């Protein structure tokens, strides 16, 4: 079948939140427990169905480490949307969301969409950011909120589906 839309998204968030893990889980179902930190950019493309149409979704995985951040805006500018990720077991990554949201909204196209994802929900005993707190934060920023585990494959595809549909619907 033919491709109705070609869209690009970026995954943003602090180092170790699981951006690369989410992308690879989505792309080929793989998961590595000790993944090395991303230095350059890498991307995948996957065809999905959104609103009954074939959509080619190009996903760019960015580097969360501070010293690599300066190039992210080049990709943000070309993106139809972003998945902004934090780690529910790491409060610092939740605090840094304000910075990531600003980074995205300062450089993106006016029509670009964004959603919030809280990753690592499999680590139930280590959780420090509650679902309510994250949901309230997302609401304040007019973002949909989803919780994922790249490790256990919980709602990973659904997160990519959600951002794709928001972009296609527009
Ligand atoms: P940078 O590339 O440095 O920006 O980090 P990143 O956001 O890409 O994080 P990455 O995907 O490399 O994951 C960091 C670590 O967390 C890795 O050791 C992963 O195996 C682990 N990890 C990622 N997602 C999950 C998850 O859902 N659950 C658990 N338990 N561990 C996870
Ligand atoms: Mg990475």
From TrEMBL:
Record has Nucleotide-binding as a keyword: yes
Covered residues, full protein: 12 to 181 of 208
Keyword Manganese in annotation: no
GO molecular function: GTP binding; GTPase activity
Protein name: Uncharacterized protein
Organism encoding this protein: Blepharisma stoltei
Keywords for the protein's UniProt record, in alphabetical order: Nucleotide-binding
